[in-house]
Amino acid sequence: MEQLLQAFFSGILSGGIYALISVGLTLIFGVVGLVNFAHGEFLMLSMYIAYWLYYFTQLEPYETLLINLIIMATVGYIVFKVIMTRVLDADHSVQMLLTLGLSMVLQNLALMLFKADYRNVRTNITTDVINAGFLNLSTARVMAFAVAIAASVALYLFLQKTYTGTAMRAVAQHGRAARLMGINIKKIYGQAFVIGTVLVGLAGVLMSPIYAVFPTIGSNFSTLAFIVVVLGGLSSVPGAILGGLLIGVVESMAGYLLGPVYQQAAYFLLFILVLIFKPSGLFGRE
Known about the structure:
Blueprint: H1 2-32, H2 39-57, H3 65-82, H4 92-114, H5 124-127, E1 129-132, E2 135-138, H6 139-161, H7 163-173, H8 175-180, H9 185-207, H10 217-232, H11 237-257, H12 263-277
Antiparallel strand pairs: 1-2
Helix pairs in contact: 1-6, 1-9, 1-10, 1-11, 2-3, 2-4, 2-9, 2-10, 3-9, 6-7, 6-9, 7-9, 10-11, 10-12, 11-12
């Protein structure tokens, strides 16, 4: 029983990180209507930034968090202005092919610059463990979970309580009506894309003491993020949070009960069942 609870709480901690990766993707899709297949590569880029800052300064990723997020915001702004604005009114198939191409370019660029080596950020927090009764929880994962959930909730409150957030929700509901009400659509698109990029950048910082970084790590997590987004209901931030936690628990419990080789099969099975019985997702509108 104790090992089962250990697996459950480990899944919850992992799910918090999955949720943070996914809420940025949810925001971009919900507001901009853009299916961003390069989302995982932004995660990879953030993890490399955290690694190289640690390598050259010996500062932990949390200490260089602000620098990392400023760089990611700049990257998001440049990518949106230079690339994404050209396909905002294009067919979804064109957008998907463009972002898929961007994903491959970033992957291969990382491969050329950094090779395929696995690079690790090893600090005191990496090996530190919190003992809570019979539970042994990684300090890095607990901290990552707390920051991830706080950031996800902050995004939800931003969308509900601020003028910009209200404008984003208006654009997500009906872009043409929002334009007629005087909302600058292109500006809102850009803000949503930059915020989504910063959120996935934050996820990269939180993950860097936990996971090794390599050029294709983004593709591994982007697939999982798309599953979480669909489970949650495509444009629902609470759905993405719940979906991330659910996927984390399913993955961890399947690994404990069935073995690690069945982890992906378990959450893909859950994904298929949700699509069959509730195609709009857990929090999605019909």
